[in-house]
Automatic annotation (TrEMBL):
<dbReference type="GO" id="GO:0031956">
    <property type="term" value="F:medium-chain fatty acid-CoA ligase activity"/>
</dbReference>
<keyword id="KW-0474">Menaquinone biosynthesis</keyword>
<dbReference type="InterPro" id="IPR010192">
    <property type="entry name" value="MenE"/>
</dbReference>
<comment type="pathway">
    <text>Quinol/quinone metabolism; 1,4-dihydroxy-2-naphthoate biosynthesis; 1,4-dihydroxy-2-naphthoate from chorismate: step 5/7.</text>
</comment>
<dbReference type="InterPro" id="IPR000873">
    <property type="entry name" value="AMP-dep_synth/lig_dom"/>
</dbReference>
<feature type="domain" description="AMP-dependent synthetase/ligase">
    <location>
        <begin position="6"/>
        <end position="338"/>
    </location>
</feature>
<dbReference type="InterPro" id="IPR042099">
    <property type="entry name" value="ANL_N_sf"/>
</dbReference>
<dbReference type="InterPro" id="IPR020845">
    <property type="entry name" value="AMP-binding_CS"/>
</dbReference>
<keyword id="KW-0547">Nucleotide-binding</keyword>
<comment type="similarity">
    <text>Belongs to the ATP-dependent AMP-binding enzyme family. MenE subfamily.</text>
</comment>
<comment type="pathway">
    <text>Quinol/quinone metabolism; menaquinone biosynthesis.</text>
</comment>
<comment type="function">
    <text>Converts 2-succinylbenzoate (OSB) to 2-succinylbenzoyl-CoA (OSB-CoA).</text>
</comment>
<dbReference type="Pfam" id="PF13193">
    <property type="entry name" value="AMP-binding_C"/>
</dbReference>
<keyword id="KW-0067">ATP-binding</keyword>
<dbReference type="InterPro" id="IPR025110">
    <property type="entry name" value="AMP-bd_C"/>
</dbReference>
<dbReference type="GO" id="GO:0008756">
    <property type="term" value="F:o-succinylbenzoate-CoA ligase activity"/>
</dbReference>
<protein>
    <recommendedName>
        <fullName>2-succinylbenzoate--CoA ligase</fullName>
        <ecNumber>6.2.1.26</ecNumber>
    </recommendedName>
</protein>
Length: 476
């Protein structure tokens, strides 16, 4: 297929490709900028290999650097700037990029010769170079490392074909319009953010880029600018709703929906969205599938609270007969994990169904409900317990700021749930237990409650339950 950047520059030269609130670049202007950057990257030695790593925030220059890597015919290796030096070096050792490009604001004194500041690239005296004319469907466009909630991260390879399939399925679900504008406040080094960039190129759509999630800033943008769609996680949505509680007036008249990932919406939050006329499309997906593959449209949200919806066009889904694990087939699925040739095959059935690692159930109408991770499932007295359900109940308990539930060995029941709680207030274990018994089956109520200053999280903000188990095993 044609290079998406040059194709849109030819089809829609004057349409705005990206806007960071200070500068707006049309597709033709973007193509010219990228030609210059490719020349400078080449002169700096960054294009000496097949892969180029990048560490950036949601800046306009970071956006351009990433697309310049693609437009030069190389593969992007996305590096999460929140990682430690050791974690970064492990991923670079695994992916072996020619260099790691780093936004000046993220530079660390510990970085050595394999790291290059953005400013060093931009200072290169170089002639502009032509962009690659084609994107091959099977070519790996990007590599993202999984979050590592259960162990060492793996490099997920994502092809141009994967990204294109994901964009097509999303457009058929949301109904993309010619003048849509997608607000990107989620990190572009995650699939949630990078998929917005890729959809912008495929749809010929404007990406409204913001450096970070600031509720006040985002609320102003949604009210005053022609944004039609925004990707959010539950935390972001709730913070934005808090501002709607304080201010009169809604978002701009072109606003169409919030695309919610990272977990289903609860009844209270849904009611608040309905109160303010904010449509929400809930979704389910993963890095391995280039973003969402299942979605719950706003019109179904009220009667299907807790569901993530139905499979999108191009996605097939079923549940494993033995344990109800969610199995999928989709052209958006990764061709494999970097340097792990047999890893993907181990996660597929003999007939090609991919094991997501999530357990769920379908209702009579075919709507999917995700119960939790199969690795996190607790089997107590023959009953399956999922931490997500318990955590959702206790999340509304006064004084609990954060909670994580894991299973521990139990001589009588095999396993039993225990909870780790973050709270700045004193809490009573007996009161917590009584609260749970009023809302959960007795076997789901945590047997013990441990108080921590903070939960162990990976750089993507996900709870690392295996570290909680380690703490218990070590008596900490």
């Amino acid at each position: 297929m044609d290079n998406w950047i040059t194709k849109q520059a030819a089809l829609l030269p004057d349409r705005v490709a990206v806007d960071d609130g200070t500068e707006r670049l049309t597709f033709s202007g973007l193509a010219e900028r990228l030609k210059k950057l490719v020349g400078q990257l080449n002169r700096s030695g960054a294009l000496a290999g097949r892969r180029v790593a990048i560490m950036t925030s949601n800046s306009l220059l970071g956006y351009q650097m990433a697309l310049a890597i693609l437009a030069s015919g190389r593969t992007i290796v996305w590096v999460n700037w929140r990682l430690s030096d050791d974690e970064i070096n492990q991923q670079l050792s695994d992916s072996r990029p020619s260099v790691c490009l780093v936004a000046d604001s993220l530079w660390r004194d510990s970085f050595g010769g394999k790291f290059i500041k953005f400013s060093q690239v931009c200072q290169q005296a170089a002639q502009p170079e032509e962009l690659t004319s084609q994107f091959q469907q099977e070519t790996v466009a990007s590599i993202m490392y999984t979050s590592g909630t259960t162990g060492a991260p793996k490099g997920v390879m994502q092809t141009f074909g994967n990204h294109f399939s994901s964009a097509v399925a999303s457009s058929l679900n949301l109904g993309i319009l010619p003048r849509d504008e997608w607000l990107c406040a989620v990190p572009i080094f995650h699939i949630s953010g990078f998929s917005i960039m890729m959809r912008g190129l495929i749809y010929g759509m404007t990406v409204r880029l913001v450096s970070r999630f600031d509720p006040q800033v985002i609320d102003t943008i949604l009210r005053k600018e022609p944004v039609t769609t925004m990707s959010v996680v539950p935390y972001m949505l709730k913070k934005l709703l808090d501002l709607r509680d304080q201010h009169a007036g809604g978002y701009n008249k072109r606003f169409r929906c919030m695309l919610l990932g990272g977990g289903p919406i609860d009844r209270q939050t849904l009611t608040r969205c309905q109160k303010y006329g904010i449509p929400v499309v809930q979704s389910y997906g993963m890095t391995e599938t280039c973003s969402q593959i299942v979605a719950l449209n706003n019109e179904d949200a009220d009667k299907k609270v807790g569901s993530v919806g139905k499979p999108l066009f191009l996605t097939q889904l079923k549940l494993a007969a033995d344990n109800h694990e969610i199995l999928i087939k989709t052209p958006a699925l990764t061709p494999g994990y970097l340097n792990r040739p047999g890893a993907l095959a181990k996660k597929k059935t003999a007939t090609g169904w991919y094991h997501t690692g999530d357990v769920g159930h379908l209702d009579a109408a075919g709507f999917l409900y995700v119960d939790g991770r199969i690795d996190d499932m607790i089997i107590s007295g023959g009953e399956n317990i999922f931490p997500d359900e318990i955590e959702a109940v206790y999340a509304t308990y006064p004084g609990i700021e954060d909670i994580a539930v894991i299973g521990v060995s139990d001589p009588e029941w095999g396993q039993s749930p225990v909870a780790f709680i973050v709270s700045s207030k004193p809490l009573s274990a007996s009161a917590l237990s009584d609260y749970g018994r009023q809302r959960l089956a007795h076997y789901k109520v945590p047997r013990r409650f441990y108080r921590l200053d903070r939960l162990p999280m990976n750089a993507g903000g996900k709870i690392q339950r295996f570290k909680l188990k380690e703490r218990l095993n070590e008596g900490r």
